[in-house]
Amino acid sequence: MVERRAAAVLLTGKDGTLSGILTDTDVTRRVVSKELSVEGTTAEDVMTANPTTVTLEDDCLDALTLMVRGSFRHLPVLDSGDAVVGCLDIAKCLNDAITRLEKMEEHREKQLGNGTNKQLEAAAMAMALAGRGGGGKHQTALVSTLMQLLSSSGGNGEDGGSKLPSVGSMLSGASSTVLLSKEASILEASREMAASRKACLVVGENGELIGLVTFKDVLGRVVAKGLSPGGAILGEVMTPKPASVTPDMSLLDALYTMRDGHFLNLPVVEETR
C-alpha cells in the first residue's frame, strides 16, 4: 500500500473473486490501536469482508451516494462476471463532481450573469460530510441534493444569492477533535483516532496547532517502517505545520484548498488576536 501510495487494497480469494477490502483506517483501528502484531496478523484477520461494490455500468453519482451513506471512502468495482477491475476513491468522485458543477456554473453565468452557487455549495457540503463520516439524514439529504443539482439545468431560483455555508457551521454538533501533544505515543493516538475515526491534531503547550497525524501517516510512517506504536511519538511522524483554515471560510473555498493541496484532512483553527 505504501509503495503504491494506496489508501486501500482489495483482497481476493483463490478463484479471483473479491473477498474483502483493507484500508489505512482499518490498519490503525484494528491492528495498531489493539496492539496486534503486524507480522503475525493476516489481512484476512482485519479486513472488511464482503464489502459493498458497484459495477462498471453503475452511475458514478449512485456510487458517490453509497460511499457517503455508508461512511466509507473506497468502493470496489466489479465487471459483469464479478471480477475485480478497480476501486473508486470518494475524493476523486467528489472532485470530478465539483469539476462538472463548475462547468455548469460557467455556462449559467454566461447566460444569466452572476448566478447561484447552490450547486457548488451542495458539493462542498457533501465533501465535508464524506470526510467526517457518521451517516444520518443530514448526509443523505445533502447527497440527494447534490445529485439533483448535477442532473438539473434549471434557473437561479428565488434564493440564488444565498450565502455559502461556512466551515464552522459544519463543525457545529460534530464529535470532538482528537488533540494530543507531540510527546504522546502513536499507540495513544491510534486509540483516540480509532474511537473518533478522525485524524489527530498535534498541539503545542499553548494549544496552537503544530502538526497533523492521519491514518495514512500511521500506516506509512509507523507500521511500514516497523516502529513500535508504544515507543514512537507523534512529534516523530507528524506532518508539521499543516495547512489550515478558519471557521468563517466558506465550505467551497475549503474544498478548493483540499483539492489543490491533494489532501483529505484540513484542520480548522481560530485566528488569534
Automatic annotation (TrEMBL):
Q: Boundaries of each CBS domain copy?
A: 47-103, 170-229, 238-273
Keyword check for Repeat, yes or no. Answer: yes
InterPro entries in the record = CBS_dom, CBS_dom_sf, CBS_domain-containing
Q: Which UniProt keywords apply?
A: CBS domain, Repeat
* Pfam (any one): CBS
Matching entries from PROSITE patterns are given as: CBS
Q: What superkingdom does the record give? A: Eukaryota
Presence of the UniProt keyword Repeat in the record: yes
Q: Which PANTHER family match?
A: CBS DOMAIN-CONTAINING PROTEIN CBSX2, CHLOROPLASTIC, CBS DOMAIN-CONTAINING PROTEIN DDB_G0289609
Q: What is this protein called?
A: Myosin-like protein
Source species: Nannochloropsis gaditana
